[in-house]
Fold this sequence. Notes:
Layout: E1 2-3, E2 18-19, E3 30-37, H1 39-48, H2 63-68, H3 74-86, H4 96-100, E4 108-112, H5 119-132, E5 136-141, H6 152-165, E6 169-174, E7 187-192, H7 199-207, E8 218-225, H8 235-248, H9 254-262, E9 266-271, E10 274-277, H10 280-287, H11 290-299, H12 308-315, H13 346-366, H14 368-374, H15 380-388, H16 391-401, H17 406-413, H18 419-422
Amino acid sequence: MTCYKQSSLFPYMKLKHFGIDPARHKLVVDVQFYQMGLKNVVEAARKADPELFVDDGDYLPSWSKFARNPTKAKGFFTRMLRAIFNGEHGHDELNFDYQKGAENDSGVYMMFLPSNMKLDNLKQAVIIASEALPNYAIVPLSSTHGVSNYNAQKKAKDAIELARRDGKKVLILATCIAQRSFSVGKINGTFLAYDNGEAGATIQKISRGLTPDTPDKIGRIVSLSFDPRRDDKLDSLILQTAINYAKSHNMASVKDALTLVLKTVDIFNCTENGKIAIRVDEYLDEVVNRERISRVVGKMAYVDKIGESLREALLNSNFSRYIPETEDVAQKGKVGPKSKKGNPKKSKQRKEEDSLLREKIVALCENLDIVVFGTNSKNMNEAIAALNDDTELQASFEQEFGIPYTALTELIQSGAINMNLIELVKY
């Protein structure tokens, strides 16, 4: 709304200082989503360093491992940054200018690294990025660089102006700072460089690239993934939009709402031959598989709604996540056990338990096909009804999952998990 004299359009409204701004819609930023797979750059970096990402016998590449030791992964990070921002090393699937097209933009980009990255490790990542991209001004947003949520926006704008005078482009690096209350219109590309993350936090990070600047601005959101087939950072945003649309339009089918939403969204796979738009039917087929939906249900779970007794039961349950192999995953090896360190403070312990709870919910949802087929049902609603009426099936559920069947109904009835999403799954 913009200040005007009282509007003649709505004389019954007693607003003397506000009126309709007919040009407001022009400030809405168009959005494009890009999925960039890192398989090729990882394999190229491994030729120079065969032990890349090795950690206690675990060869599975991940952003979490990079966050724990950026210096060890310097070859990978350097190669990736130069490929994305300078088009070097022949990785056309990562060349951002090539993927988005030749049109000019502000040359200001933002990259979110894992939120649990320690400050000392973030400092190392900043040093590596500065050495890799001398034609860029690297702008770190962290307390160790004198930045807080209060002054992050001003620091970034000042750095952008200084870089412009020096003829440099800008790459802003952040973890947690600036994911809220941070509006810098010059940002034309937002890169998500982390493995997982809560749906709300991802939506906030995506929004950093959607501040209006010029009438023709396109906010480009790039998800950097070691395994594109399991990359679900964009799913939660799209599915939540579909749920909201179905609710506001009294639609019985979330899948129908999802189809309509997808027709308004541009999502591209990045390939060596340029970006390829993902078709609506193709995305639907990918997103409604059990593993994909289950991960989104876990991300969007309201763990605070789970009662303490159920919380304890889930944390002590005997099921765990199953991660299938895919052709597009960067090379893997055996995954060794991770050591447990010390006794964390209570607040940190609660946060870690919440993360584990989400994993347990994902594991439960990934295995709900057992419940559907075991009860000879077509969907989860029918399966739950069958469980309610059969003590033998209830005993089988408890034996299989290590929790009483009422745990599932409590998760649904409390609103901790969204039944609309579960019903999207194809069994």
